[in-house]
Amino acid sequence: MSERGNQFISEIQSQKEVARQRTAKWRVANPARVKAHNRKFTRQFYAACAVPYTEAELAGVRQRFLAKVMKTESCWQWTGAMMGTGYGSFSFQKQPQNAHRVAYELFVAAPGTQHVLHRCDNPSCVNPEHLWLGTPADNADDRERKGRGRYGKVRQ
Length: 156
Fold this sequence. Notes:
The structure is a single chain. This protein is of the alpha+beta class. The protein is built from five helices and six strands, in the order H-H-H-E-E-E-E-H-E-E-H. The protein has helices at residues 3-29, 31-49, 55-66, 99-107, 136-145, and strands spanning 69-71, 76-78, 89-92, 95-98, 115-118, 131-134.
């Protein structure tokens, strides 16, 4: 390679190193923002890359999903894998996802990047009739209205 080509490559590498160091400093200074950014990016990435299922494949996924559900008079209780937060976990589109999000996608429509919220306030419920879509602000308002906020009840 020519001298000019080598010089060009070394300039690019030094620019990359400066950018990497700047990013590392930002991540250390803003850990909460990094976590939120990563969570949002992951949700958007998987929503964009989701492989569409054929109707026959969806029927198989629905059957596998419903095998982990105990239907009661009102709620559909998730009996499969659970996360520490009380929400169910189900492997869908080659990754573990919240069971209530999968229920909404299988029986209603794809939620995209919106939050799937519970009307019944039961984290293990996957009944599509108890689920609705909302923004992060709707989620925060619903949490406060139901008294599950940081301070336990709505402050006035």
